[in-house]
Amino acid sequence: MAIHSICLSITELCMFRLKIAKTVTINFNGKVTDHFTINSNDEGFKRFSVSNFIPYLSSSSSEEGDFLIVKSNNKTKLTTADFLKSVDEVLYQDENSAIFSDYGKLKAFYFEYLPKTSEYLVYLSDTPFQNKHPETKPDEVMDQLFHQIRMAKNIFKPITNQDKSWNSYEKQLSILERDFLKKLNSEVKKAFISEQNLKSFSPADQGNIRYYTVFSMKPDIDTLWKKLSSVKNNGTIAITDADKIFNYLRDENFRFFYNAEYQQILKTNNSVVFQRKSENSFCLITKTKNNTFVVMKEFPALEQMTADYYKNEIEFYRELFENYN
After folding, report:
1. N or C: more exposed end of the chain, with fewer CB within 10 A?
2. Which residue range forms the structural domain that includes residue 71?
């Protein structure tokens, strides 16, 4: 397996809800055995961060750990035990993975030797479970760590014939991920039940960063949906001051659509996705299958991102929103 293979787009990876990106390497130097050291200054060393686009820790980082690629000329193959000599406690261990406690933090670990390039692939999670409120339960933490190990073990296995339905996605979620999405759904239901004339509600994190916005299917929203969904496949729409209907969104503090040109890049019976042509920012607009809500989620432009950076994330949330109830 060539070293660049880990840079494959998320559509080719095993876990639909993760993004992997090469990162700037911090100084790292750790001795595993007398013949094998992980040193970020060594030639060929590479580090890739893994992030989860389901922010189940709410106010904390969505990072799921790092993959390291390290050259090795040592003919003696490493074992899982070689990597675990200095940890506090091992809770789970097999031939190439483990869950252990180190300085009070539980971590998932995986390694694999790549014979074609004489390299080791090493995965190590560092999820700050302690930042979640309410506090995570032991079974929730272990379940998430096993999900991380499963992801690492399948990193080079491409997705084939992926069932892109909400039922399929939901079955693959961890306890923490599933409970997080249920919590957001519960907040939305509670908001609209408690205020019958509510136009919109946005579940948000502790820093008031909105995850998405749910609009009640009122006449203005119905008009907006019809206007946006009427754009032909790969067609464009130019919004000007004359398009007063978009003021409705801005009045509800949803500000993706302003005076600019947008291209529709995806269309289904219940969803459309637009890209702002001046930058790589996207917006998913979905009418729920029960015709009760229109849900909108913005995917902002980033300093460094590939053309399909948001592809799987948009597909995941499209299925989630279309089945919203």
Report:
1. C
2. 3-153
